[in-house]
Amino acid sequence: MRLNQVFKFYESKDDEFVTVYFEGKELRVPSGISVASALLANGIYFFRASSVNGSKRSPYCMMGVCFECLLEIDGVPALQGCMIGVRNGMIIKRQIGNMNVKKLDIETY
Amino acid sequence: MIGEHIAIVGGGLLGAAIAYGAIRSGLEVTLFDEHDTAHRASRGNFGLAWIQGKGLNKPEYVNWTKNGLRLWPELQEELLQITGIDVALQQPGGFWLGFSDREVLERETKLKQINAQGVHVPYTIMDRSDLLQYLPELGPSVVGGSFCSLDGQANPLLLLKALHSALKIKGANIINGVRIERVTYDKNTRRFLCFNSAGDHWESDRLVLAAGLGNAKLAADVDIYAPIRPKRGQILITEKLKPFLNYPTNKCRQTNEGSIQIGSTSDDVGLDDSTKTDQIELLARRAVKTFPLLSDARLVRAWGALRPLTPDGYPIYQESVKYPGAFVVTSHSGVTLAAAHCYTVAPWISGLTQTPLEFIAFRGDRFIQRPKE
Asked: How many domains is chain B built from?
């Protein structure tokens, strides 16, 4: 069995689809599912690299607890992919290491 | 003495450090660690290894803390060798930060007063431009502060894990899930007995009570007065961030893994270890005022923990006069003093060294109200 067949969409003719982009690659996914589900069902398992030792990590709990599914979504770093629904046109990137709070715009303070 | 059996009630940072020190001194060790329904102050520790500002009206405590910080690198290295666990000790010096000139002036006065007691803790008072060289992300509200080169930090959870791991490797008997309700001394066998609520008991030649808040009641069983009360501290934890804070401060610190720990409150609320939103808000506001970039960091946890505190805030280290071989130890500085507990307190309670001179200042008797003559 190939690993990328572990997760599959339940397809029905009523499904509406949206387009999201993961690391530049276009993905057509059903609306109403989480970003983490959308990536897993497309065979994407490497979500983030650990800030402690650099190891590649995948979602674990899928319910907002483990923080293993962190992604950069539409420019916002370190978001939990399992807690955010897909939206048409969403730009998704891996979260490599810790979020760099210095790079954010702090001119407003 | 070497080969004797010592029982230690309490498996937190204090009990575990003493237990480890005892087993490396050649004693046979049994450690009682209760269970997760206990208050577990060591799991809530902020992780500073800190001296500046401590010890006003108690010069003995200044020297005791200095001793502990001096011994720390040895403990870090020893635990790494034995367990492979790096407890992330860093001693780059630490900063106290003030929001007004008056606050900074009061700080300077306090640090002067501490050193006027015949002790010496190095410190430097800094203005904002000095501070910015070390803490470039400081917000405009910080006007000045103090720096002490002896201060530092460690990871309290890794320290606790390393001590327990070292104890297992050295063959200590760690008993979890047992709450010791009372202790007695058997004159005939000259042994101490620790009882749980079911009436089971464990015997030992020596006994150390390091049960945190539990000491308030247990200490009386060995005729020592230990009026220990809880003082709640609340702490906030952010998500892991890229390093931007290279020094611990009195308001927040960045852990070796990247989280910012924001501390801490001091609340007299009895045994309530919950968190309160008004206190969380206060801590968060103060942290953002100190380091404005934190306003973009997300908080992932907030917790309350109960510090076991004596009325004057200083520790108790005392051997029972009535029951020699029984000791009460209590301290809320389980990280700062970890090495002192391992290398100085443990040989003493093991019967291998004399009572350290400064311990006369750390007896529980000091809290007994005597009628004025």
From this structure: 3
